[in-house]
Amino acid sequence: MHVSLLSADGDGCNQDWAIATPTAVILLDGVSSPSDMDTGCVHGVRWYVRQLGAAILRELTSAASLRDCVAHAIEQVTASHAATCDVTHTGTPSATVAIVREHESAWTYLVLSDTTIVFDCHSGLRVVSDASIDAVAVAEVRASRAHPAGTAEHAERIRDLITVQRRLRNTPEGYWLAAARPEAADHAIVGTIALADVRRAAVLTDGAARLVDRFQITDWNGLLDILSSGGPPQLIRELRGVEASDPQGRRWPRYKPSDDATVAYITRHRWACRATPYDSDAY
Description:
By secondary structure, this protein is α+β, with helices and mostly antiparallel strands. The chain is 31% helix and 24% strand. The chain has a single domain (2-269), classed as Phosphatase 2c, domain 1 (4-Layer Sandwich), CATH 3.60.40.10.
């Protein structure tokens, strides 16, 4: 596989993590909280995301299933800071996960929580995303969107939302993501697609996917066309332009005016478009 990868800060502290190898793409999105909300961890979300990403990468060298790779990685990282941190805390650092791995004549994939993988196949478009978080704390989400971003009311409603979401993380009544419980991997969406059926694919954090699923500026085919013509830099430029046109979230109410955005564009042939160097001040 040939991969073009870009990660862009949303608010100056990027908590995404991504890597591409000749046979795999791994993408993680750290779950953030207001800085004054306790997590029970002395390390923080960025530390957790990088430790988990590295652990998953090591696990992918084995022949284990993607679920087992993620479960083993979660277990390892949890053990590495259990002596210094309260890993049972409801706010313990956590992350969403997406993986695409090439193996023999197929691509296998995994999605845990609200990252998205889009496959453009000869048999049709396949969009893989876990929207289970959308079914929880619905009243709190609605309340947070009733106030412009940057206001005290919006910040307070976000705190209410996160408090409820934390209680429901990694529970049968709520939603699952990578945190301290390896069994979360059992709830990931997994699948296999024949290698010959895939023309192109994209792996996106929710911050990058919002051009489609939040802003509805284009559809998934349109997003892939943007990546085909201008690569991840073009997608990020268009995304940041839309966010800048609505800084307080009045037209498109949202948790963050500008979120971390990470995208990997995958083709089976070398990408023909020339990528430009990433400059964080440009987006």
